Amino acid sequence: MLAFAKDISEPPPTHPEEVKNPKLKEYMDYHRNINHEKLVYYSLDQSKGYLQKEMGACSDDKKKIEDYLKNNFPITYSHVKDPEQLLMMLRKLINAHNSTNNWYRMNPYFCTVVYDCMNQFVTLFNRLLNEGSDEVNSYQVFRDQPEKINFDDWVQLYFHDGDFLIGKNVEHPHFLFFKRNQAIEENMSARKESDEKPETALEALRKEFEMDPIIIRMLLGQSPSPKDLELFYTSRENPIYEYLYDTESPDGFMDGEALIDHSYFLSFQIFGLSRQEASSVLEEAANISRN
Where are the residues of the annotated region Disordered (predicted)? Predict the structure, then answer.
């Protein structure tokens, strides 16, 4: 199965503050209602099917398939322009996701593909839901009554970071990733005005912001190498998510708070908000914490 920032094979746990906060419980119930594993699968499988269909229909029309990739894989297209390569990546992602024995870690190239696929699927699902279409029920995305899926919220909770979105035209707020990405982009712009070579400037940025080296290659517009097209795996028996439940972690917002509880509560606080609104809410929360 694909290894996201949280274990998508299990419903989210009960947050310790749910009993005191009905709105938080409603938010957690929403996430527990989602079958996250199925959501990812349908997103990938449907994108693969649509891509194959388009490739067959446009086999003699290179411009048409290029336009299809630009419109449906806007984040991915800046570095993966070959439809055959994209199809291969989708097949690898689906095969990995269907594995019951291993966790598969995605590098930033694969993250862009998953992001685009999920954005497409969630848009379609929400439209069908709004239209009252029976087709919604054909997707086993919810354990109970289907609800509108908040893509912005999902991305911030389940992707490890948003570095693969740096320099991209993103339609969603992704506030929890925005400040870091904005700082990196501003630093990039400042360095462009100097006499530094792009490779040198980006390598300095990589060290300063501790970025994955692949991000630098993506920012330089480089396509994935054969090595980049591999998904690294570890046994499902390895407790890769155990640290999220450590109540003694120094990264929690409060003493005794597990990282997973902190993550859900943070996302709950800014659920459905614009960047400006989210900034105000978190600034107010930080002031309360300091006092």
Answer: 1-22
Torsion angle defined by CA atoms of residues 172, 74, 111 and 199, in that order, rounded to the nearest 10 degrees: -100
113-129 CB burial, b ≥16 within 10 A, e <16 = bbbbbbbbbbebbbebb
> What does the block give as tokens for 274?
């614009």
Task: Name the DSSP letter for residue 138.
Answer: G
Return the SS3 of 34.
strand
Q: How far is CA 37 from CA 40, 138, 234, 265, in A?
A: 5, 15, 18, 22
Instruction: Please report how many Cα atoms fall inside a 13 Å half-sphere around the Cα of residue 68, on the Cβ side.
Output: 20
CA neighbor of 64 nearest in space, from 126, 275, 72, 4 = 72
Distance CA 205, CA 81 (A): 26
Continuous H helices in the chain: 22-33, 36-57, 62-72, 83-97, 108-131, 151-158, 175-192, 198-209, 213-219, 259-269, 275-290
216-272 tens-digit pLDDT: 999 999 999 999 999 999 999 999 999 999 988 666 556 678 999 999 999 999 999
Question: Domains of the chain: which residue ranges?
Answer: 27-240
Q: What distances in angstroms separate CA 202 from CA 11, 113, 279, one per listed residue?
A: 39, 23, 28
Q: Give how far Cα 252 sits from Cα of 65, 103, 152, 163, 183, Å.
A: 46, 25, 22, 22, 23
The one-letter amino acid code at 113 reads V
Q: How far is CA 200 from CA 166, 182, 216, in A?
A: 18, 20, 10
